[in-house]
Amino acid sequence: MGRHEDAQHYYETALKIVPDEPSVLSNLGLSYALSKQLPRAEATLKRAAAGQRVDPRVRQNLALVVGLQGRFAEAESIARADLPAEEASANVAYLREMLSRQGDAPGRRPASASSRG
């Protein structure tokens, strides 16, 4: 809802109570991603994925954040830990296409304002 700093403070407080709780780390990582702090999101999600009680959604969130940074092969590799190869490939292909449409893909220039609809 756009209150990323408030959410991040809440999750950081929760981590003081339950350190390294994967679900809290995952939510914090997603909050960082939503506020375009992708390297911080990745580090937080890697920390969540390193735990012993990891929900597969944590790794999928990590794959998403890695893919958003343009590291598509790495994102697909992470996604394959929990998904069939075809589904992981399809997810990354969809992400790549979405980013290219937005002009956010690394190495691509954003579309000029005159070409946007």
3D structure, described in words:
Helix 2 (22-34) packs antiparallel against helix 3 and helix 5 (72-79) packs antiparallel against helix 6. The protein is mainly alpha-helical. The chain has one domain (4-103): Serine Threonine Protein Phosphatase 5, Tetratricopeptide repeat. The longest helix has 18 residues, at 85-102. It is built from 6 helices and no strands.
Keywords:
mainly alpha, 117 residues, Serine Threonine Protein Phosphatase 5, Tetratricopeptide repeat
**Which architecture per CATH?**
Alpha Horseshoe
CATH class: Mainly Alpha
State the order of secondary-structure elements, H for helix, E for strand: HHHHHH
Mean pLDDT: 87
Counting DSSP E segments of at least 2 residues, the number of strands comes to 0
* Fraction of residues in H or I helices: 55-70%
Q: Give the overall form.
A: flat
> Biggest β-sheet: count, sense, barrel?
none
The CATH superfamily turns out to be Tetratricopeptide repeat domain
- Helices, by number, come to 6
- End-to-end Cα distance, whole Å, is 25 Å
Total domain units: 1
Structural class: mainly alpha
Classify the fold: give the CATH topology. Answer: Serine Threonine Protein Phosphatase 5, Tetratricopeptide repeat
Poorly predicted runs are: 107-117
Radius of gyration: 15 Å
Strand content: under 5%
